[in-house]
Design goal:
By secondary structure, this protein is of the alpha/beta class. It has 13 helices and 9 strands. Helix 10 crosses helix 11. The structure holds ligand C2E and magnesium ion (MG) (3 copies).
């Protein structure tokens, strides 16, 4: 049938299409329910100093606790939320949960910035930034504890539209990270003037580092560019000691990945912090 598709440009009707559509529709109505019934929750993954593992921040990542018991990851429902108009409510929910997590961390004496991910679809909506600002103000959380992660492709594709808004957030004291950096083909013109405080090296580059001879070169260039343009730099997906050491040698001071900790529910994240030496650290945002 794929041969037929390549020849004719359309697919012959097959009964499994109907099943696929039915499944998508069913997942969609379940997701709508999940939003109403608080089945979504956040896990927190530490961002650390590569030299000594000291905590410098967290990233909040969304999870769906399906009523049947399994936990569903964002890759399986964010795209669906984006194409069905549910993403606005989802992102808003994530923002509220992130602000609540910041307050709970503060109560436990842990003061580090917490990042949340916002969908590109939402960032271009005119009211997104107003709502964001109002929600932060209403929460009473100082914006310096909040960080927004947006992907590089979004930051570049919608550059003119979202840049002034991102600048407003930076002026409020928020941190802005360009996520999955290196995968979105920033032009050099834009790189010099991205409205961002930090770049996150995509985990695919970190993983390539160990695999190919010139794998290091890409990471080295990204780190040099970040330094040149005054962005903080952090590597994601650090899984091995060798990667950690190589990143440090190349001049990347911060990292995130399974080597240090997996994303954890808040209670576990608190325990993780308490189990560490110097855990009462009061880290000021950079
Ligand atoms: P991301 O923001 O780049 O998040 C990093 C992903 O890498 C997370 O997957 C994390 O669990 C995973 N990861 C962390 N350390 C390691 C490691 O050492 N090795 C490997 N192989 N993976 C690691 P996750 O949680 O499945 O999230 C996937 C993507 O979904 C995120 O990529 C982000 O783009 C999106 N996402 C997550 N939460 C939200 C959310 O609340 N709202 C929106 N709009 N998007 C979200
Ligand atoms: Mg992220
Ligand atoms: Mg990322
Ligand atoms: Mg990524």
């Amino acid at each position: 049938d794929m041969a037929h598709y390549r020849q004719c440009g359309f697919l012959r009707y097959q009964p499994q299409f109907e099943q696929a559509i039915a499944e998508r529709y069913s997942l969609l109505s379940q997701l709508r329910l999940a939003l109403n019934e608080d089945q979504l929750f956040l896990v927190l993954q530490p961002k650390v100093q590569l030299s000594d593992g000291a905590l410098v921040g967290f990233e909040a990542l969304v999870r769906w606790r399906h009523p049947e018991g399994r936990i569903i990851g964002p890759d399986q429902f964010i795209p669906l939320a984006e194409t069905s108009g549910l993403i606005g409510r989802l992102d808003n929910k994530v923002l509220h949960m992130t602000l609540a997590a910041i307050q709970q961390l503060h109560q436990a004496g842990i003061r580090v910035p917490v990042a949340f991910n916002a969908s590109g679809v939402e960032l271009v909506r005119p009211l997104f930034f107003d709502t964001l600002q109002q929600t932060i103000e209403a929460s009473g959380v100082d914006p310096c504890w909040l960080e927004l992660e947006i992907t590089e492709s979004q930051a570049v594709e919608e550059y003119d539209l979202i840049t002034p808004n991102l600048r407003r957030l930076i002026q409020m004291g928020m941190q802005i990270s360009i996520d999955d950096f290196g995968t979105g083909y920033s032009s050099l013109t834009h790189l010099a003037e991205l409205a961002a405080t930090s770049l996150k090296i995509d985990k695919s580059f970190v993983q390539q580092m160990s695999e190919s001879a010139n794998g290091d070169e890409l990471v080295a260039v990204i780190i040099r560019l970040a330094n040149r343009f005054g962005y903080q730099i952090i590597a994601e997906g650090v899984e091995t000691q060798a990667q950690r050491e190589r990143l440090l040698a190349l001049g990347c001071p911060l990292g995130q990945g399974y080597l240090f900790a997996r994303p954890m529910p808040l209670v576990e994240a608190l325990a993780w912090c308490q189990a560490r030496p110097g855990s009462d650290a009061d880290v000021e945002p950079a």
